[in-house]
Specification:
This protein has 290 residues and is α/β, with parallel strands linked by helices. The protein contains 9 helices and 12 strands. It has a 5-stranded mixed beta sheet with strand order 3-2-1-4-7, sandwiched between helices. A hairpin with a 5-residue loop joins β5 and β6. α1 crosses α2, α5 runs antiparallel to α7 and α7 crosses α8. Bound molecules: zinc ion (ZN). The site of zinc ion has 5 residues, from loops.
Length: 290
């Protein structure tokens, strides 16, 4: 059975084609939501998806919230006014087949639990750090969606009381301080990639920006760990590509704060599936739902 997954990221649209649970094709193209807004992005998704040929199921991962009918509620990291747009219907019209939507954090954790660094864990917390910060839970081997499918919004943890105003309506959400754009801004760089290159070269401002972001991700994670006590945490996404420069301050903050959690029994590991995880998860989700 061939299942197609597309992950709508803030910077890239990623495609994964699975035959059963085997990845047979992956591709990506820039999202460029700043160029043409939603209409142009719909067109790019449809072009990408149609290139995969005949498939048995289609899943699309979205970087934010949507309702049970597939209408957009909050997609803060895409340019243009998406609120209320009938995303599922537009995609089904364009692709000529049923489409299952999934939150990108849920898609990430489902993929890592099934095929990646989360395999074998009973209770898994997934965090995906890119332009936005998403997350998800797999509990007793099952994706935990929560009421209205809203579980796992890791990026909207409050980490700074009375901090910056977030598009979600809260103040001080993690994503505003530890998302890729925020880290670049704190480092005085034009992109996250430039920040990372400068940090790897030992520049202290860039190192400090990554350390501060890691510390805040760790703070939020410590709150989850004392409450959920999973046996594994998988951290992925473009920001996590920084590797130890980010993971070390995360681990240090967790060790300092999650004092009552059995940290010797909770592994915190890097994701395995790379940038395709969200697309793979969307494909898996479409196949499960069939
Ligand atoms: Zn928020």
């Amino acid at each position: 059975m061939r299942s197609l997954g597309v992950d709508v990221g803030a910077t890239q649209l990623k495609l994964a084609l699975l035959d059963g649970e085997r990845l047979v094709e992956e591709r990506q193209t820039p999202t460029r939501s700043e160029d043409g807004g939603p209409d142009a992005v719909f067109e790019r998704i449809v072009d990408l998806g149609r290139g995969a040929g005949r498939v048995d199921s289609i899943g699309v991962a979205l970087p934010g919230l949507f309702d049970a009918d597939g209408n957009a509620l909050l997609l803060p990291n895409l340019h243009g006014d998406w609120t209320g747009l009938p995303i599922r219907r537009r995609l089904e019209e364009g692709l000529g087949a049923p489409v299952r939507l999934i939150n990108d954090g849920h898609a990430f954790v489902l993929a890592e639990a099934t095929l990646g660094a989360g395999r074998g864990a009973d209770d898994l917390v997934g965090i995906v750090c890119g332009t936005g910060i998403g997350g998800g839970l797999v509990l007793r081997g099952r994706l935990h969606l929560g009421a209205a499918d809203r579980a796992g919004e890791f990026g909207h943890h409050t980490v700074v009381a009375d901090g910056l105003r977030c598009p979600c309506g809260n103040r001080g959400c993690l994503e505003l301080y530890a998302g890729a754009r925020a880290i670049a801004r704190a480092a005085g760089a034009t992109s996250f990639e430039e920040t990372l290159a400068r940090a790897r070269g030992g520049e202290s401002i860039a190192c400090g920006a990554l350390e501060r972001a890691g510390g805040l991700i760790g703070l939020a994670l410590a709150n989850v760990l004392v409450f959920v006590c999973p046996d594994r945490v998988v951290i992925g996404g473009g920001v996590a590509e920084a590797g130890p420069i980010l993971l070390e301050p995360i681990r240090a903050a967790v060790a300092a704060r999650a004092r009552v959690a059995p940290l010797d029994r909770i592994d915190i590991v890097a994701a395995d599936l790379g940038p395709s995880a969200g697309a793979v998860g969307a494909a898996l989700w479409s196949a499960v739902a069939r």
